[in-house]
Write a structure and sequence with these properties.
22% of the residues lie in helices and 39% in strands. The chain is α+β, with helices and mostly antiparallel strands. Helix 3 runs parallel beside helix 4.
Length: 447
């Protein structure tokens, strides 16, 4: 099936709302075309494209809600889905805190679908892979990874008059380069437009890291000054969003920000906001209830400032709805999906040059939560970890395990790069710089 246009998705949402025999109804329509070219051992081994459209119906009976979904778009299947949502609502427990579906608000839907993304077919993706692999194979390095694109249409409608839709595009590329002498390097790209994918630069970055990280050495466990490349910072910001930037987590006392608004909890150099409306953003400008996303300053000069909310938690707490609802049913509460950290004024080389002895980290791997309230994370470094001595990268290091409080780490930020990059993470995307952090706790190494 072909991807729905915005007009088609909005029309479908309105039709589903009309078919739902309930006190109120909401329809969420998502239509996407995902394409992926994967490679390993310096050759393409998989090329796939998947297209699908799905309708999710939320039926409301008083203060009861039920949700059903289908990817069959014929009238009979849609009617059955609507009826299933009503049946689910009738059997659901009552929620006296449910404020009802939100009424429509003005939404700005800028054109964010890059035309070139629709032309980024298998031949173009193969050209990108070739450019990546050339940088590696010319140095007798083996590369693996993928080049992918997503074309997406999302529309939301409800019986109170919400009627919004938007198309977005995204392109992702990853490359893992490995040598026969224990070296490994990684590079990635995430953005809206394939025209901005510099595949040869990506391949060169991964291959260079792989060569520099050959014959890695041991590092004694302990606290070290670290320079984190932007991709490592992305994991920290992503987990902070998941654990602590939601009104639900805040109100339930599960957030490191609970009871601390107005208090400085991080370095004055740290500014984090959720801003889907920023000129550089390329995601949806409305949430999954069709409400306009608003910029939310979360950390300002290290001070805990605000959290994101949605219609349910906004009404429950008396806060303004900032447009951060996830699709119903939603057990998580509102979530920040367009996080960004403000840039500083340094380069990554200047950060390294200011360190007498420390560790440079290209990226993290297999990061998990050890303790959610203080946002303590555990994981390991991967694909380019180096000792810093007298302001220069020296010995490559074996991958290090760490256990570190994310809030404590950001309270020890000493410098921030002006260069930033987007990364595709667990929750939407993040735009982050590199960081110099005074202390980071490494607990051992992986081998």
């Amino acid at each position: 099936m072909s991807r729905l246009t915005t007009a088609q998705a909005r029309e479908l949402a309105a039709r589903v709302v009309a078919l739902t025999e309930a006190d109120a109804a909401e329809a969420l329509v998502t239509s996407h075309e995902d394409s992926l070219t994967r490679f390993a051992e310096n050759r393409i081994h998989q090329n796939v494209t998947e297209a699908d459209a799905r309708v999710s119906v939320r039926a409301v009976l008083g203060d009861r809600q039920g949700v059903a979904s289908t990817n069959r778009l014929d009238d009979e299947s849609l009617s059955a889905c609507c009826a299933a949502a009503v049946t689910a609502a009738s059997a659901a427990p009552a929620d006296p805190n449910f404020p009802g579906l939100p009424a429509p608000e003005p939404v700005d839907t800028p054109a964010r679908a890059a035309a070139a993304a629709g032309e980024f077919g298998p031949d173009r993706r193969a050209e990108a892979v070739h450019a990546i692999v050339q940088q590696c194979s010319s140095r007798l390095i083996k590369a693996a990874g993928g080049v992918a694109s997503t074309l997406q249409t999302v529309a939301v409608g409800n019986s109170l008059g919400v009627d919004v839709g938007m198309e977005t595009t995204s392109v992702r590329a990853t490359v893992l380069a490995r040598t026969d002498r224990g070296g490994s390097g990684w590079a990635s790209y995430h953005g809206p437009d394939p025209a901005k994918l510099a595949a040869d630069t990506l391949g060169d970055e991964a291959a260079t890291l792989a060569q520099r990280s050959e014959y890695p050495t041991d590092l004694e466990p302990g606290a070290y000054t670290v320079v984190l490349a932007p991709e490592a910072v992305a994991d920290i910001v992503d987990f902070l969003g998941y654990l602590g930037f939601s009104t639900r987590a805040f109100e339930e006392g599960r957030s490191f920000m609970s009871g601390r608004l107005g208090e400085r909890i991080m370095s004055e150099l740290v500014n984090i906001s959720d801003d889907a409306l920023a000129p550089e953003a390329f995601g949806l400008t409305f949430d999954f209830e069709g409400m306009p996303k608003r910029r939310v300053p979360i950390i300002e000069n290290g001070v805990a400032t605000d959290v994101v909310t949605d219609s349910y938690w906004g009404a429950r707490t008396g806060r303004e709805n900032t447009g951060h609802a996830l699709p119903a049913p939603n057990p998580y509460g509102p979530m920040a999906l367009d996080l960004k950290m403000d840039p500083g004024d340094a380069t990554i080389d200047e950060l390294i040059g200011s360190v007498e002895r420390g560790v440079y980290v290209s990226r993290f791997h297999y990061v998990n939560v050890e303790d959610p309230v203080p946002a303590t994370l555990t994981g390991m470094t991967r694909d380019g970890t180096f000792l810093i001595e007298d302001g220069a990268l020296t010995a490559p290091l074996k991958n290090q395990r760490f256990t570190q409080g994310a809030v404590a780490a950001l309270n020890a930020v000493r410098a921030v790069t002006r260069e930033r990059a987007f990364f595709d993470v667990m929750l939407g995307s993040v735009l982050v710089p590199g960081l110099l952090i005074d202390t980071w706790e490494f607990t051992g190494q992986t081998g």
